[in-house]
Amino acid sequence: MALFERDYDIYRERDALREDYQPDELVGRDEELRTYKAALQPVINGEQPNNVFLYGKTGVGKTAATRYLLGHLREDAAKYDDISLSIQFLNCDGLTSSYQVATHLVNEFRSEHDQISTTGYPLATVYDMLWEELDDYGGTVLIVLDEIDNIEDDSILYQLPRARANGKLDDTQVGIIGISNDFSFRDDLSPKVKSSLCENEIHFPAYDAEDLKAILRQRADVAFYEDVLEPGVIPLCAAYGAKDAGDARQSIDLLMKAGDIARDAESETITEDHVEEGRTALERGRIEEGIRGLTEHGHLVLYSLVTNEIEGETPIRSRDIRPRYTRFARLAERDPLVPRRMRDHLSELTMLGIVSVTERNEGRRGGTYREYELDLPVEQVLSALSETVQLVGVHESVVDMADVDLAASS
Ligand code: ADP
Ligand code: MG
């Protein structure tokens, strides 16, 4: 008998639920698409393209709408002999400066053998190279800067849209499509950048549960075999999605998680229980990611609290956590923070939902103090803290805990 056998029960095409899947049609974005399409129309007319600025929270279809329309634009532009269109799609995640964006763009236009180093040139030199590459192209160039809010200075957002007006380009017409997940990004742009980059602004509002249901149905039809989904599954995923942030990505992820859990359980259908289980698992993953993202001292404070929790010492005051925190910091060869700073870390942990806090009254003297305890299962927190545990050493309270796998996620 084969060790691996193909599953035929749940998924027809699981990849349709993945991040990189592009649906053929977008559901429920007619108005935004109409505005967006109108902004791109000059390209087909052979006119100078508009700059477009899209904004809205994550998972509301900005990237999907862009890929959808630009795919059609590329196809339709090819039917006209006098249009030569190049589309550069750049995700700015990880690119924090105009310099990095500019070198990236230069390299996109250059052949593999002719790439420039991403450090070491003066910015003005990189711009000159960029204008040269762009102008060599000679047609219409659309540059998509997705997740543009990662760029910390706005030099390139000023330079690119104005390159032609500033006499840097003669033969090529450039249009910029900026996409931002961050509302404040737009407000913080300088007026001169705003007036050119944000010529055409399109806001993508969050989805409500009805929108999400339609999006999930479209995806489910591709991803799952018929009759696999129990009737309550899509409404439940949509309700959670609408409650969280109106984010289609999260709802699709939840549906996929539920599908995976059903498949692992060798169930013939996906039930609402699978969705609930999936949500717990995803939330857990998010929290563990949150813990891993804390600073070293945040980790040390949390480790001190966890060991006190295991010993039954919680709820506990900040000053009673302190001796252990100080010891752990020394073991990790770090200078302990002053009490106030240490308390700031406890407040941060509280805000993240990892720790809960109770105000107590001092009694007749009238003062108040705070007591902290863990708001998550100890095992979960410890597994996210595995690096700190290795650095500090396994505390005696942890040694006896059989179900913690500290080697697992280092
Ligand atoms: P954003 O770029 O705004 O963060 P995305 O475009 O990446 O969001 O959308 C997140 C996910 O949801 C993608 O898988 C996308 O295909 C899907 N999606 C978003 N909006 C729609 C829609 N209107 N119709 C179909 N799928 C959508
Ligand atoms: Mg996006």
Brief digest:
The protein has 410 residues and is of the alpha/beta class.
List keywords for this structure.
alpha/beta; single chain; Helicase, Ruva Protein, domain 3; globular; 8 strands; binds magnesium ion; 3-stranded antiparallel beta sheet; 50% helix; Arc Repressor Mutant, subunit A; 5-stranded parallel beta sheet; 410 residues
Count of helical segments?
17
Helix content: 40-55%
Structural class: alpha/beta
Oligomer: single chain
CATH C-level class of the largest domain: Alpha Beta
Mean pLDDT: 92
Query: Which series of helices and strands comes N to C?
Result: HEHEHHEHEHHEHHHHHEHHEEHHH
Q: Which segments are poorly predicted (pLDDT under 50) over 5 or more consecutive residues?
A: none
- Tally of structural domains: 3
Which range does the strand content fall in? 5-15%
Count all strands and give the number: 8
Q: Which ions, cofactors or small ligands are bound in this entry? A: adenosine-5'-diphosphate, magnesium ion
Instruction: Write out the CATH superfamily name of the largest domain.
Output: P-loop containing nucleotide triphosphate hydrolases
Distance between the termini: 36 Å
Shape: globular
Main sheet specs: 5 strands, parallel
* Sheet with most strands: strand arrangement: 2-3-4-1-5
Indicate the radius of gyration in whole angstroms: 27 Å
CATH architecture of the largest domain: 3-Layer(aba) Sandwich
